[in-house]
Amino acid sequence: MKFSGLFKKILKSKTRYGRIEGYCVLVLIVGAIMLSAGIGLTIISPKGISAVLAMLGSLISFLATVALIFTWLAKENPIITVVSISFILSVIISILIMGTIGLFAYILMGIFTVVISAVLLSIYYIMSKK
Question: Per the confidence metrics, is the pTM higher than 0.70?
């Protein structure tokens, strides 16, 4: 099998989740290549484009891995995904509001988790009815 045939096989899937998994894997591979190239280029110079390439590659790899995990969660149980996303959003909102993690931020995080979960679960329930 050719190398390009492997990519076509990864992206050709009958399900929506399979295609999303394929794209996440490809982005993960691209991020890993960028990270490896950046680390390899630091032999020449530890500053400049090599450091940026390594940092960008690690960020892309991390985000692709998180997206892949959420895809697997959504494939197994969409409600778990909704609650996970709402928790992450509530943490981000609490940090942005407070600036630091204090007791008030934890209280806000709990409130935001409940509210965002309720909204996202309502949207999921309405969309699944159609």
Answer: no
